[in-house]
């Protein structure tokens, strides 16, 4: 039973490694395209990050010991580095868009449906949230809230 479990886990890690190799080639291609100054689509970057995150979750579900644990950890670090690379490409892409005068748009979901919001506005919202957290940590502050009433 131990040998069968070892082989099953080994095969699972090998399949994940094969998928990660495919995605690694796509990451390398995107890096080459971005190095030429070409603007990448956020949708493609998001899909690739999502696929890599799926593989990371699959790796996380595998419980192994010994040599396989080392292989698993190596693959996890590899996937994480590809995700970081894609995040850097997305950041560079955003900077290229802002330099060219375009305001990149990102979809946000609200209760009323999907609304397109400029990334600059999202950055302001993030800064406001960070400011609120810093006030929360201070000794004295006053919080007022307007509550909506529903029938």
UniProtKB/TrEMBL annotation:
Alphabetical keyword list: Chaperone
Keyword Nucleus: no
The protein, known as: BAG domain-containing protein
Record bears the keyword Protein biosynthesis: no
Coiled-coil intervals: none
Top-level taxon of origin: Eukaryota
Organism of origin: Citrus sinensis
Molecular function in Gene Ontology: protein-folding chaperone binding
Limits of the BAG domain: 13-89
């Amino acid at each position: 039973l131990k040998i069968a479990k070892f082989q099953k886990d080994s095969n699972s890690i090998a399949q994940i490694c094969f998928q990660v190799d495919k995605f690694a080639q796509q990451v390398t291609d995107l890096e080459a395209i971005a190095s030429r100054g070409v603007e990448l689509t956020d949708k493609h970057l998001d899909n690739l990050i999502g696929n890599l995150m799926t593989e990371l979750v699959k790796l996380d579900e595998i419980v192994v010991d010994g040599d396989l644990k080392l292989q698993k950890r190596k693959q996890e670090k590899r996937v994480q580095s590809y995700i970081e690379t894609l995040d850097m490409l997305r950041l560079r892409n955003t900077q290229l868009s802002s330099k060219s005068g375009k305001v990149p748009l990102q979809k946000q979901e609200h209760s009323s449906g999907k609304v397109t919001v400029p990334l600059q506005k999202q950055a302001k919202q993030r800064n406001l949230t960070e400011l609120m957290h810093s006030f929360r940590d201070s000794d004295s502050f006053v919080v007022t809230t307007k509550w909506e009433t529903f029938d």
